[in-house]
Write a structure and sequence with these properties.
71% helix, mainly alpha, 2 domains, 253 residues
Length: 253
């Protein structure tokens, strides 16, 4: 009873069942550290120290996605790059038009989310970038639209380069996820549903999840293959008489 209560409570508050190895967790943290340190020192060349912290804070949130969840939909190059650039542009426009205030910052973030949705580049840390451009310090505001070119553009390109080099250094990681040929060339067994059915369900449910339909199909096929292997292993351990005996179904009268 108590164990069941704990499990239901964990599901309710969203505690995930993390099955990743200790090595994978260490790799995620170390690679994010290296990338963020590089971005911070690069930003400090163009901005004052407090404003550099603002830039790194939004890029730091992206580092969690790029290096801890490199195969996620939020982590791909287009959402990462366009999400930050568009949100920064919106934040600068709102600041120059209406000034700096918490209300304007909130409106800029909300507008950024809507635009990112329509441009298919939804990237959660982009909201932090928009907010930083509205509520940032004097040196950030003084740069105006130049902020989009440097340091932001250069920081994003640096992060993409590091994400590509570091993630692809490990055979189980592929960035961008398009390079994961095991999913692209996977031979799908015939099921009662196809890939188009998954796309249809995602559209019908009208929700955005951080996984593509191809990845969901890949997970399903892998789980199905694992279940088949486990079933065959179970059958092989049965006595030979049991394996050879036919299964008789008793019909009711």
């Amino acid at each position: 009873m108590f164990i069941s209560f704990c499990r239901n409570t964990a599901r309710f508050i969203g505690i995930e069942t993390n099955k990743t190895s200790h090595f994978e967790r260490l790799i995620s943290g170390i690679t994010a550290f290296v990338a963020l340190l590089s971005v911070f020192y690069f930003s400090s060349v163009f901005l004052s120290l407090p404003d550099s912290f603002l830039v790194v804070s939004s890029i730091g949130a992206s580092a969690v996605l790029l290096f801890a969840v490199p195969h996620g939909a939020f982590s791909q190059p287009w959402p990462f790059f366009a999400g930050h650039m568009i949100s920064a542009f919106i934040g600068i426009v709102f600041y120059k038009t209406f000034g700096a205030s918490f209300t304007i910052g909130a409106v800029a973030v909300g507008t950024s989310i809507i635009v990112m949705h329509y441009l298919r580049c939804l990237h959660p840390p982009g909201g932090s970038t928009a907010l930083s451009c509205v509520l940032g310090g004097s040196s950030l505001h003084a740069m105006g639209y130049e902020f989009l070119l440097y340091p932001l553009l250069l920081n994003l390109l640096m992060m993409l380069l590091l994400a590509f080099l570091i993630n692809n250094s490990f055979y189980w990681r592929r960035y961008p996820s398009f390079l994961n040929t095991s999913i692209q060339n996977e031979h799908h067994e015939k099921h009662w549903f196809e890939l188009e059915d998954l796309y249809g369900v995602l559209e019908k449910e009208d929700v955005f999840i951080d996984a593509s339909a191809e990845e969901l199909m890949h997970i399903y096929n892998a789980a199905r293959a694992s279940a088949k292997t486990r079933h065959k292993s179970f059958i092989s351990r049965l006595p030979s008489k049991v394996r050879r005996s036919p299964i008789r179904i008793r019909r009711g009268r």
